[in-house]
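Notebook entry, structure prediction.
Reason for the run: the old model in the group folder had no record of what sequence produced it. Starting over properly, with the input documented here first.
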Amino acid sequence: MQIKRIGIICLAGRGHLYPATALGRKLRDHGFEVTIFNRNVARSLVQAASLRFGLIQDVCSDHVDVFPPQSCRGPGPNTLNIMFNHALLVLQYARQVFTQARIEALLVDQMDLASGTVADILGIPFLNLCFSPPLYFDDESPPLFLTGNRALDSQRSDAMRREMHCSVD
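New structure, fully documented this time:
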């Protein structure tokens, strides 16, 4: 079977969407039908890239707060909450959206912990792509943070790994 319809799914951040849309345009230029699946907040960026947009509902994203506020590190969004909320949305809505779009293969952002599972359930071949620094769940891996202070880097990295383990267990 020759694959013609490819789906791409990633987190809604620009650091994920820009590489996803660039890849989508290249695939489209090589004759593939490409749909990028995401929350409504990404619609304009995807459509500006002249790619198809598949909506993953985001009705529960404002209602779920898995980690208490003290687990947030500094200003800005908590990455683990974003990943967890994205996984909830994908597990709840993606099966129907992928089926309706009739995609034949799926390219999945490494930070997306659920889309590969949904693709597997549907029998859709998928490939994980890295649109961000890799996640290391192994305690022996290098620190996730590099501030120059070894003790602080190790402490922050250990705390982040513990939260990551909790989010996927």
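Summary: The helical segments are 14-29, 43-48, 79-101, 115-122, 150-168.
The old model has been moved to the deprecated folder.
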